[in-house]
Amino acid sequence: MELRHLRYFIAVAETGSLTVAAERRLFTSQPSLSRQIRDLEDEVGAELFNRSARGVELTAAGKAFLDHARLALSQVDAATEAARRASQPSKQVFALGFLTGQEMTWLPRAMQVLREELPKIDVTVSSHYSPDLADAVARGKLDLAFLRAEPGYDLEYRVVSREKLLVLMPSDHRLTERATIRPEDFGGEPFIMASNKAAVLHQVISQYLRDNAIDITPEHGVDNLAMAMSLVASTRGLALMPEYANNLLPWSVVSRPLEGEAPTVDLVIGYSKANTSPVLKLFLSRVDELMEPLRTAAS
Fold this sequence. Notes:
The protein contains ten helices and eleven strands. By secondary structure, it is of the alpha/beta class. Strand 3 (about 90-100), helix 5 and strand 4 form a beta-alpha-beta unit.
């Protein structure tokens, strides 16, 4: 079994189509990709996909194989990145990732923690959606990220803050007259839901809806905050999002708190225990300094 077989398999699994995977992800021919997948199935000893005119779907064996294939590739990528860094030891690089929008709050604090090391290291910063950050940390592309505690990755997570959910709505919506939004206020309103890709947030919102007997069918699913705000403005719907959304609201969208005790979603730092970076070790030893401004504000 070769690494390319795993990459081909994952591409087909994620696109649900041999044709799409071949043309848009792998830049190869569809017949060639089909042969590679057949070769992989022969080696595994089980069919990994059910094929039909509508595309392909993972079999039970394929679903079991997918998680291990992703883990295997992430470990290979992490090993490659570690070797690349070790071959260039003149100046260490510390790669930080942030859930888009969170860098406004957490980047200055992270740099303060690293202030004594800054003359000796290069710090790179990127912002992405939470699952993408988790994948980058698992693959060794990032040393540490501020994200959600994404399931399915071999990472360590430490909570740095708990954010309340609040309600986003168009700036001229009738509910803007209310100081707080009650569960019954959601009735009859278009609702924009975090999609399954944003698994952690999706779970928190779903639990809140169940606990408060809010029986609504989401009209749209979104992967990220920017998409949520765009749909709130364009469809005149409501959305539940973490309070850091207040840092990014356009003029066309406003927020209101929930009445009573609002649900919360954790923001965590994620890192790999296999990462031996001394800068990461130093950063983790001083994580409490990140939360100090929050404790000061709360006291």
